[in-house]
Amino acid sequence: MNRPASCAPGRAGRCAGIARALAGAGLLGLLAPAAAAAQGIGGSGKVFNVQRRVSYQSAVYEQTGVMTGAAGEVRLGRLSLSVGGSMGTLAGDGSATNQDVKVRTTAVALRVALAPALSLGGQVEARRFDAGAGVVSWRLIGVTARAEPGLGLPGLRGFAEATFLPASSVANGPKIKTALQAAVGTSLTLGGVARIALAYRFERYDVEGTTSSAERYEQFRGVVAEVGIRLGR
Fold this sequence. Notes:
This protein is mainly β. The protein has one helix and ten strands.
């Protein structure tokens, strides 16, 4: 039986705990001293040259393609809210077991700055796979951390981001046991407004086996290029 796209029954407590953590993070940000508040907005477009690898039993299936998307961010005090999405078609080898698939991802992250170059918060993500065999939807909830240290030159920064998404639900597919995402790269801000970034992104998903199918392991990896603007301070 397919599970609805909501928190699985056995994980309701975990979802509630994460929701409380998100609310607490927002409260901490709002209580930051107004005199030290940094305010700003930003937006960007990105291109993800992605390879998807699916390990199932003794076989490995690969799909490649380009996903394009956009993201926006609002900063107020120590609190930041970012929303982003991307979509694209990943091409398989044309066989019945490795068809082309259309992928669409939407993510929302709420973070609190613990230090000028370090933030921690929560993330909610929805991902949709549309292939000849049908449509599968994921819902993922977890925690995310981001470090963005300066690299010694004006406007040049490095960044590393890690996200762990332990709470999930799946519509029209088996459960996800583990979901990890990571990215590392550099960014350059020009004139205090324009920003360009280049990163390597890696994602890992362990999908639970069922009575009719074995467990499988999925990876998404590749280079992400991003161009955007940031206004404010």
